[in-house]
Amino acid sequence: MPFATAPAFGWGCEGHQMIALIARAHLTPAASNAVDQLLRENPIDPALTRFCKDRPSDLMADSATWADDARNVEKTGDWHFIDIPLAMKAGSAVMKWCKPVEGKPGCIVSAIEFEWALMRDKSQPAPVRAKALRYVIHFVGDLSQPLHATDNHDRGGNCTEINFFLEAKPENLHAIWDYKIIERDLAAQKMTQAQYARSLDEGFNESKIDVLAWTWESHALASTVTYANLKPPIPVAPAALGTADQAACNTERQAVAALHISINDEYVSLALPVIREQLAKAGYRLAGLLNQTFQ
Prior knowledge:
P1 Nuclease
């Protein structure tokens, strides 16, 4: 997704902040204190424009969206996703879609490994480790969003035009999964983000750190849920087409618009349980990674 067809902020403000709050609840005291000390003593540049205006007091939750705010300054837009074609099955060589750029990470998979290594390296200056921590908090969340690990020659669902309930303006599939469904459920449940996070944090426990397994899990969910439940379905693009350029993106948007796909209660009833579980998993996985780092 090198060019921006629409904001592609995995899980939006609410989702990323809730993932951080879930992770916080499962940090050891030592890890929680170490995380707060690193973030407090090396704060986010106050001159940076922050997209999320509802800023939580929890330092991890506030840091969870920093990587989106700083992506243009840091030139790390490609670090937020991996465009594995929807037609591919688990077991393929992931790095085929994650080629390094000038020695730096080429996608979210290598970015997590790169920044996690910096965070663990105590010889690194504290500001470098704090920045790495903010990246890791964000990218573990991004990777749990199926469209951050999948591409159907539509830039992870950005090159689509789909009706969302009765809203006058169509939305793209990526944005619907990033934040539209979550925002709608938050409003329906009349919950704050902290309350919603607590409601997600039950009956699930996973702390195994396996970035490749997380990647293929998200990719599979895109195939079996995100795209599969659209009516009428969007055809699966041949893997050989690769990532869409601007012209192909516009063509795909028009083709999808012609299908008159609508997101309704039936679709949300199938998508929401997956979204909720992915948010919870990301929180537990982030906690496991941080507990291992700051043990």
